[in-house]
């Protein structure tokens, strides 16, 4: 089946944070929204049902555990979780913290305005906060 590689569009749109037991955890480069992407490190997978049952359970465990911690970290009002794949076929799950009154509220974040890239200090701070949070989680 080949070797796992992250889709080039996901690489272009996000920054690596860490490796979880199943997923690569990345931060989307749009400072308007606290937005993570979890990508199962399985080559050639486009759909949730293509993962075996063990990987399906692990994926949702990582999404739910990281998402709950991220919502608290970012003091959000709502956690949006989605796996679309219309632009990037590789299986990936978006985890977006939403706040009442954010740039897209109450609509989805996709296609709203232009992304506002993180500056280096903002990126480093968010990554450090994420790593500290993730390190405290039971993801096995």
UniProtKB/TrEMBL annotation:
Keywords: Hydrolase. It comes from the Bacteria. Pfam families: HIT (PF01230). Residues 36-105 form the HIT domain. One of its GO terms (molecular function) is hydrolase activity. InterPro entries: HIT-like (IPR011146), HIT-like_sf (IPR036265), HIT_Hint (IPR026026). Gene3D superfamilies: HIT-like. This is Diadenosine tetraphosphate (Ap4A) hydrolase.
